[in-house]
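Progress report, Aim 2. The chain analyzed during this reporting quarter is listed below.
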Amino acid sequence: MINLESAEMKKIIRDILEAFNRKDLSTMFSFYADDVIYIRSEGTLKGKEEVKRYYTWVLSNWSTIRLIEKGIIVEGDKAALEFIQEGTSLKRMGKKLSLLCLDSFMFKEGKVQEVHVCQDRLLIAKQLADGWFENTIINGVIDQMEKGLH
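Predicted structure tokens for the chain:
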């Protein structure tokens, strides 16, 4: 059984970020277990190949995309990564995206076994909305959600 130290887990996460920013999926996925579970609000992906297909699709939708580390916290076999995701969309006429994200990682046998992705999907929709109709719908939802804040 391989137990990683906190510094080793942080290094693996940083290596994953660097590989993603280089669009080097082979290196990125060398840190993942073959049976990794990847949980997003859109659904759960199972296995390294399924997650790699997802990332291939993600990279195909952005002319530029990068992840900027804000901090990593490690506790036992789990780690939390706070980061900024920035990019320029290919599908949305070059619209820019910038949002704060939080991913949690669970390690097993020296590899990433499970990832939970937390992103503000409404903020993504707001930044990438195109045209009057999309903006009206999204801003209407945001206005309803923010009523208690004002």
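The helical segments are 6-21, 25-29, 48-60, 121-128, 131-146. Strands lie at 32-40, 43-46, 62-75, 78-89, 96-108, 111-118. These observations will guide the mutagenesis work planned for the next reporting period.
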